[in-house]
Design brief:
Two copies of one chain form a homodimer. Chain A is of the alpha/beta class and 407 residues long. Chain A folds into three domains: 5-220, Rossmann fold (3-Layer(aba) Sandwich); 246-322, Tyrosyl-Transfer RNA Synthetase (Orthogonal Bundle), CATH 1.10.240; 332-406, RNA-binding S4 domain (Structural Genomics Hypothetical 15.5 Kd Protein In mrcA-pckA Intergenic Region, Chain A). Chain A is 47% helix and 12% strand. Chain A has 19 helices and eleven strands. A six-stranded mixed sheet of chain A has the order 1-6-5-2-3-4, sandwiched between helices. Chain A is globular and about 75 Å long. Chain A starts with a helix and ends with a helix. Chains A and B meet through helix 7, helix 8 and helix 10 of A and helix 7, helix 8 and helix 10 of B.
Chain lengths: 407, 407
């Protein structure tokens, strides 16, 4: 790599300021960047959770920015640690995945990962490459370097331990294996959320013990989810998945609370700082946050799909959500008769995941048929009736006992 | 095996009464013995400590008694667990042995073991047979079955943990590996001291989890050492080694406090219960305990060496210790001149292990030359002078500068 000092200094400030929660050790990180050396950027993932959402994108976009400076991403498929389950921030021992589940999930993950990160500048490494031949002697060597107290000092472990909740011995191995990954791939910088700090530091420690230069730990902030309260997470249902269709993605971005708009701009878009400053001033003044949010939604859809998709999603949103019209192209729900059980009807066409979800939504008043709120479960419909759940889910009724039977 | 009920019942009472601290589960143990099945008796040892002393013999003699009923001993060479170090009752993390040290120690151990246990009815198994090919996947399987809290509930761990002393994660693996040994060798009964109870119970648990009949745990009492205070242990220096020469063994038995005589008879000799009862009555009366102790010393030397050795050791003891005469056959110490450095002289002929030990013994007044207590370190000797350290160590001086140089 050739060293262009001015370029590096410009990039450094972009890399180390926006979208950063904590860097350990910032001084060393700066030195590394200024050295002009091609850095190895470690990002591991747990194929137990193959779905990437905007929360993950914060770190992935950072990787992409480093790639643009010529650095090398090393993506570690945690196919072994996934069989244990990362205990970070989790309060119960998790069930183990089969090797087959892990493999299929890893593929799904990578399809999404490479929507953001440059595949050409990424080295993909499977843990099985080294853990497949890891012996008991290796385990003994590794586990002898750390104490039980060190592990139980970790916040989540200590909370579980003192509450008397079980921690499998296996779970103590998880951070050690993740640390050893850093040694194997000779990681210069490890990337992830702030909840990974303990594991990252263990990596530094192990590298030092084994005579390597300790990696830098680059921690990105946790993005707040669409509920405006908790960190974005699939299990909380407040997420926007990077693989979701443009319409859904656009609609979900539009649903975030106004206070989050600037955070999203900062963490998941490339809009320059000067422009964001303008937005801030507008928001402090009389500007309608709705327009800002539309801009944000377009940026995000364009980034993960295309500009054309963004334009179309915006039109869809205006028509369906803002003006309340039925979308042009909606799925069909087959009813067995003209007085179907609405709960089953919703379930059969996939508008809800379960009968109990249908019951809940009906009771919340979130279901309409031809513009009338549904009360009770058995109701008359007619051929072509429009059923709507919330603002975004629609279907059109066809009365067809035979197809209803199969659904 | 044919079942001779009367014989079994006689043996059962001998097996399960004398030399037993605790049996888990006694009812099941009885059933097993009455079933007439050939049982697999597991005894593991840690080749970090190759020296067997009378304390270990309590369990080994029990094995021998079971063998006499036709049962099979399975001796497990803990060549893998030794590399970790058994944390049972130990208060610090121990250094690891090399594979070479382990192998050589194991040989030493077995030479002593088969002085008591019948080699022909013993199956020797090295852990490396199964742990040599144990993979990380196996480790994950095994460690997922137990929790950190279960391990830390163990007395020694919990004491260390709450005192803030380090416990390497590796040490949590030790009891799991020992438990897994029971599964591999299909142990019916595991033998050892009461300090092994936790490990034994873990074996039961793991066997049950993996669909095997859980082993019985046969725990023998801890023998008090020659100091009359602490359990016999090499590190406390209060032990009688089974490999020690007849004279030393005899002398050490004679040195135990009178109160221990009956305990030793019970735990390390085969004298029948009726005879022991007589001894008890004699001791309660006017009998001289010295005579009883001589009987004990003869029994033990005869058992571990031969009857002839026992007779000779007794004569040696009477002559050297009781009458204070020099033994017939004592080693030579070569002096460089007729005023040698006594500390070096003692060290060169092996009467002490180090110069500092020599200094300590001289200062304690435990060293004599020709019947005169040694004061100071540089003293005149003559050809044929007798040097004595304590009651049992003797040598004869030869003045020979050349050989003194080499010594």
């Amino acid at each position: 790599m050739t060293i262009d000092r001015a370029l590096i200094e410009r990039d450094v400030s972009r890399l180390l300021k926006r979208g950063v929660a904590e860097i350990i050790v910032e001084e060393e990180m700066l030195e590394l960047l200024r050295s002009g050396r091609k850095l190895r950027l470690k990002e591991g993932f747990d194929p137990s959770f193959p779905d990437i959402h905007l929360g993950h994108m914060v770190a992935l976009r950072k990787l992409r920015q480093f790639q643009e400076m010529g650095h090398q991403v090393v993506l570690i498929v945690g196919d072994w640690t996934a069989q244990i389950g990362d205990p970070s921030g989790v309060s119960v021992t998790r069930p183990m995945l089969t090797a087959e589940q892990v493999r299929s999930n890893a593929e799904t993950y990578m399809q999404q990962f490479f929507k953001v990160v440059d595949r050409g500048m990424t080295e993909v490494r499977w843990q099985s490459e080294w853990y497949g031949k890891f012996t008991l002697a290796d385990v003994i060597q590794l586990t002898s370097k750390f104490t039980v107290a060190q592990m139980l000092a970790r916040e989540d472990f200590s909370a579980r331990y003192s509450a008397g909740r079980p921690i499998a011995i296996t779970e103590l191995l998880y951070p050690l294996l993740q640390a050893y990954d850093s040694v194997v791939v000779k990681s210069d910088v490890e990337f992830g959320g702030t909840d990974q700090k303990f594991n990252f530091l263990l990596g530094r420690e192990l590298q030092t013990m084994l005579g390597q230069r300790p990696q830098q730990c680059f921690m990105t902030p946790l993005l707040v989810g669409t509920d405006g309260k908790h960190k974005m997470s699939k299990s909380l249902g407040n997420y926007i998945g990077v693989a979701e269709p443009p319409d859904v993605m656009y609609g979900k971005v539009m649903s975030i609370p106004d206070e989050l708009v600037m955070q999203y701009f900062e963490l998941v878009t490339d809009l320059p700082e000067e422009e964001l400053e303008e937005f801030r001033q507008q928001l402090a003044g009389e500007a309608n946050p709705m327009n800002m949010k539309k801009r944000l939604a377009r940026e995000i859809v364009a980034q993960l799909h295309s500009k054309a998709d963004a334009v179309e999603a915006e039109a869809h949103f205006a028509r369906v959500v803002q003006r309340g019209e039925a979308p042009a192209d909606i799925p069909v729900a087959y009813a067995p008769s003209d007085t179907p059980d609405i709960r089953r009807l919703l379930k059969s066409c996939g508008m809800v995941g379960s009968i109990s979800e249908a019951v809940r939504l009906i009771n919340q008043g979130a279901v309409e048929i031809d513009g009338q709120k549904v009360i009770g479960y058995q109701l008359p419909v007619k051929e072509g009736s429009i059923v709507r759940v919330g603002k975004l889910r629609w279907c059109r009724v066809k009365i067809d006992p035979e197809k209803a039977e199969k659904a």
